[in-house]
Amino acid sequence: MTDLPLNPCILAIESSCDETSAAVYLPARQQLFQEIYSQVALHADYGGVVPELASRSHLEKLYGVVESVLSQSSLTLQDVDAVAYTRGPGLVGPLLIGASYADALSLALDVPLLPVHHLEAHITIPMFEFSDLCFPFLALLVSGGHTELILAKDLGHYELLGSTMDDAAGEAFDKCGKVMGLEYPAGPKLAQLADAFVPGEYPDLPTPLKGNPTLDFSFSGLKTAFARSWDLHYASYSSNAFAYAIQHAIVHHLTSRVKKVWSSYPEMPLVVAGGVAANQCLRTSLSDTAKSVQRQVFFPDLCYCTDNAGMIAHNAYLHWDRFGVWGSRAQRVRPRWPIETLLSRDE
Ligand code: KG4
Ligand code: ZN
């Protein structure tokens, strides 16, 4: 039952935060279908994700999202050879909804259940899109909850080279956008304002961790300086100038860490993953840097930047192919699951 079939069909569920997503992956045909239901509107009034509301919404939407992805791929549940799900990290309630759904479905279909590490899925999805990308590589993971520089040695084998000491990059975008009165999640809206800035004067912001020799990140001082500048100089600059200033500072900080890590790992390509990988200014800055030091940089397609089940289905297949089926049905979800401990599967 657990052997990898010749033409497997993997159905995957992602429910770690505020996107309810399902995907169907047919690796033999290089076909990946996905549906995403975003809960953004549900949480907008609260300025952030409310875990209890997120759980209830996943429960309500999951069935329909699975139905739509099956219909999009012209397949039925009978075609499914394994069910994958996000085991962690993420919010415990939302994870439990996805895990219980996937568990029940795999049991009913009598097919393997494949647990997936959400962050590993973020950084391996570019392997689906770019056939020349293989291990080892460096990964910059930039999302609403994470900002990490990772050495991806091989599938399942990761070393954390640097991480944020306080806020994540996406959180910095969101919090500064909130200061400007933009609705949650403010990151993409702030980026839009910044990209429309006509070159000119803009507020001065500090450089985080100046002179710090590590590969760590820090965004909370920047956010405080931004809020202060907004209060003091509100009348002196346009919203576009404020948005440009903070986007420029965040992107500059991320790029400076990438330059540093490339000097220690000269041959390695870089994968940029997570919601903030959708940021055009970051893409341009890292592409320019890559060109200047003759390195390769891979960005996922925009549909695989924010949370999606396509990356879960793809990562589940990589593990099934390499390591077979592991884990038991009684396994807990893992809201906190350091990527370095990914293969310690007994917990
Ligand atoms: O990976 P993701 O969907 O969810 C997790 O946090 O796991 O990332 C969402 C984050 C939010 O903070 C959002 O504001 C940010 O990614 N984001 C952006 C852009 N698109 C999404 N930040 C800046 N520019 C963007 N274009
Ligand atoms: Zn994510």
Short description:
With 347 residues, the chain is α/β, with parallel strands linked by helices.
Plain-language structure description:
The chain is of the alpha/beta class and 347 residues long. It folds into 2 domains: 10-125 and 306-341, Nucleotidyltransferase, domain 5 (2-Layer Sandwich); 135-299, Nucleotidyltransferase, domain 5 (2-Layer Sandwich), CATH 3.30.420.40. Helix content is 41%, strand content 17%. It has helices at residues 40-44, 51-72, 92-109, 118-124, 126-129, 169-179, 187-195, 220-233, 239-264, 280-292, 309-323; strands at residues 10-14, 19-26, 31-38, 82-88, 113-117, 137-142, 147-154, 157-163, 270-273, 297-298. The strands form 2 sheets. Strands 3-2-1-4-5 form a 5-stranded mixed beta sheet, with helices on both faces. A 5-stranded mixed beta sheet has the order 8-7-6-9-10, sandwiched between helices. β6 (137-142) and β7 (147-154) form a beta hairpin. The chain is globular and about 65 Å long.
Give descriptors for this structure.
Nucleotidyltransferase, domain 5, binds zinc ion, alpha/beta, 347 residues, binds 5'-O-[(R)-(carboxyoxy)(hydroxy)phosphoryl]adenosine
Question: How are the elements arranged and paired?
Answer:
Elements: E1 10-14, E2 19-26, E3 31-38, H1 40-44, H2 51-72, E4 82-88, H3 92-109, E5 113-117, H4 118-124, H5 126-129, E6 137-142, E7 147-154, E8 157-163, H6 169-179, H7 187-195, H8 220-233, H9 239-264, E9 270-273, H10 280-292, E10 297-298, H11 309-323
The structure holds 5'-O-[(R)-(carboxyoxy)(hydroxy)phosphoryl]adenosine and zinc ion.
5'-O-[(R)-(carboxyoxy)(hydroxy)phosphoryl]adenosine (KG4) binds next to helix 6 and helix 7.
